[in-house]
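pasting FadR family transcriptional regulator for the record, 237 residues
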Amino acid sequence: MLHNRPRDLQETSEPNRVLQAIRQIVSEGLLPSDGRLPTERHLAAELEAGRASVRRALDTLEAEGLIWRKQGKGTFAGQPPDPTEELAAQIASDVDPLSAMEARLCIEPALADLCARRATADDVARLRKLAERTHDAEGSDSAELWDGALHRAIARIAGNRLMLTAFTLIDEVRMGDDWQEKRHRARTPETRAFYDAQHQKIIEAIDARNGPAAANAMRKHLETLFDNLRKSMEDRP
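structre below
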């Protein structure tokens, strides 16, 4: 049973209503401490919907990187456990945010290049939806959630397991609680609007299946993040 029911949703078609409701449950943390979602049967009963609508919603949220499934265990919010987590915890104290950005600049443009070469039309549609969620997010925490989901989706679509592992390690290191304030200071309404425009350029290049253009757009985006992060750290009293 959910800890809390989601807020009332506007009248809409059942699949969209169910997707909105489960997305709200996940994004607002209305779950037990282990992050486990109720079963499809319980969600269907809780939301007064058919199991097909619940299953379709879970498929969409998994593609967005907001949930993961383990056969025989259930469905959980967030990302699946990764062996890089332990290594990330070991090296996090020795890595500063600017070093993490240097690493991102080395790997994410290459991932964007591969993503452009391998993305399907459905992949591009999911990227556009994640960019839209990032744009519409209210508050820094929500913006971070959707921004991270977008970058992770690009890394997964690239389809290179070794590079995805390297990306995951960097992502784990930079998601530490002690770095949250630094990232939030570098994310202002003005920079968010600029980041949104850069996300669109990355996705347009991916949609055009133009690897070099996608890599260049990603590099410019990360260089902007790098500069803003560095400036926000220098400006702190």
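Strands lie at 67-70, 74-77.
The chain has a mean pLDDT of 85.
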